[in-house]
Records
---
Amino acid sequence: MRNNENTWILTAQCPSCLGTVDVVTRFLAENSCYIVDIQSYDDRELKLFCIRVQFRPLNDEFNADVFDQTFLERAKAFDMTWTLTEPNHKTRVAIMVSKYDHCLNDLLYRYRTNALAIDVAVIISNHPDLKALAEWHGIDYHHLPITAETKPQQEKQVLDIVKQYSCELVVLARYMQVLSADMCSELSGKAINIHHSLLPGFKGAKPYHQAWDKGVKLVGATAHYVNDDLDEGPIITQGVQAVDHSHYPEDLVAKGQDIESQTLARAVKYHIEKRVFLFGSRTVVFAD
């Protein structure tokens, strides 16, 4: 559901207990806020509850600071944490990329056409190849080469740039470098990666060619939050497509890149629309 003008998003999370839905919906009603859409989930294994509400204030004097202050009194009894997102908020994004440009091109198209509510503030790469594409879009491009010896310094530069541009989200759009544990910790819950779903069977160079040689019948992609387990962070979304004997390696590459682009864009969309809740190593995703 698209977040339209004057529609706010409230997301909240707390331990499971009686009255969690009521404390949110009753507060909104008492403050003349009309609920447009509501989704909730209670995890019986982890005993955690989460809720996402889109609402429209019926009072022209709605004030977010006052809302937070008054809701605090209700929420603290449930040990509830929450975020309030204003209408038409555009998430400031840093995109990291190496040489493959299919995911970057897709994100920039969605950014340019307002299909994604993002503000691409900066593009960071360990190669100079895609600088012209960034410049065409009027986006700053930082080329930061990296070697095993310079990795700590390069990652510090990256984090400094992310902070300098006030980025809320980092998107690894086929950034072909393994992030250190320290950097993953710094970006926990704020960085999304994409990789093909041929792992762990087909690693390294030309995975689609390896897959073709073994006669795979499915290709796909996985978008997840980064953590210090390589390509094993909490999954946000996945995509898959059937293939057969008539698909040659170049066909698998083309299909795989399409799925990677679509899957990454969908994960970014879910994140910026506050549809994703982190439950340890898992996610709860309220798809639209």
---
Amino acid sequence: MDTEAKHTERDRSSAPEAGEEGEGSRSVRSSSPSESLGKRLSGMSWRRAGLLGVLCTVVVLLFSHFVVQPFQIPSSSMEPTLQVGDRVLVNKLAYRFGSGPQRGDVVVFDGTGSFVQEGLEENPVSALSRGALAALGLAEPAETDFVKRVVGVGGDRVVCCDKGGRVEVNGVPVDERYLHPDDVPSEVPFDIVVPQGTLWVMGDHRSHSRDSRDHLGEPGGGMVPVERVIGRADWIGWPIGRWTSLEGADVFVSVPEAERMPGGAHG
């Protein structure tokens, strides 16, 4: 009898009570909602990250469109000032508040109608994708966009070359220290008066630059309308080793202002 009683007590002590069994079952069942909640939170995190990425891209594109745009240098026409692959930051507000391009400024402009024939069209889809990438500095700019240095502004008389082989602006020879060391100011002689509202622009690597000189005999005479200027290249932003600001060349300081008179290009 004693033996049977001990077995009975042992069996009772090893069996879980009713309350304990219910709690264990509930704890097992509650793991399923927690996993589902984790999955929902994970999905929400990915969606938030995606929305944040889209928002950041939109903000960058708007900033690039209205304030500062990266511009990838596609050619050697501005060496040694700008190297192929450099990303310059173009200040789009530089000429928005009454001031215009000055001699020595490095500007980015749309050459349609001056450097490039009107009516050239690009596939809309490829133009949109390329434009978005170019606005972020991840692709080369449109074929109608150029970067050059302003040598003459409206009313200036620009002549090349004087007896010393230098460019003259309003009768004053200019010591263009920014030129590529292997170049002369110009192998093409010219004598022009820049019409009001336009610019005479040239590359720093004169022997590798198609600029105003190459369009003298065409409509517009190689002049770039001021309204076609996208902005002023103020900084080199990439690569890191070339971080620097692009100051307006001080070589034009001694050039006097031109008389306000209508003028046109003449050879």
---
Amino acid sequence: MFGNYLIGLREGLEAGLVVCILVAYVVKTGRRDALVPVWLGIGIACAVSLAFGAALEFGSQELTFEAQELLGGSLSILSVALVTWMIFWMRRTARHLRSDLHGRLDEALRMGTGALVATALLAVGREGLETALFVWASVRAGGEGRSGPLVGVLLGIATAIVLAWLFYRGALRINLAKFFTWTGSMLVVVAAGVLAYGVHDLQEARFLGGLGTKAFDISATVPPDSWYGTLLKGVFNFQPDPTVLQLTVWALYLVTTMIFFLAPRRAGTGRPAPAKPA
């Protein structure tokens, strides 16, 4: 459940911060008349994200087993790719998120109501679609038919809403760069598990081989239905009998992504050094 809570918290807070920045800027600039189109765009984004998640969940139920596994595996890998891109993007732009959104909103205010709706829709909708896809993939990886993963996601989103509200009211100050670095690191671990599960789906769909080639099997030591097996499954998407391909993909993704994500960023060279006096 913790892994899914982290997804809901991280993705929900990103969307919440975007909403706070948009609404606060409109209020502070004295353009309260623009609040209606901004909230309309936010509402449409939420509705589209929920519809997308519902389509993923209920649409896949009509497929054959092989087709379900092929779809699930493909979308799991796609969700990991999108979340990985989002993690690096947010790490790079967290310090400048406010100014970027202000610039877009200034331009939208000049263009009119439709542009305001579109700006809010695109700013929040991207986060919503990424969240819906990754949550769906993570819930599948955490165990189909169980409410635990979904409860974890909803608790994470609820926490994010409270934090975003406190942030808007000025009662909470967040170092966004540090927050997204720490949560991004933990999310890389979660994404590695989702990726491994996606590979397993593709193996079960007969799209990839090696389903019967196990890297190890410690099911007797760590039973999947035990409390600690359930805990490892919920936090890390741990599987006690992974295939060689699953383990290889998991290790390559986790090590490579973590190295690049935690590597120190180069200092900017935008300003020239002051000239030394002769």
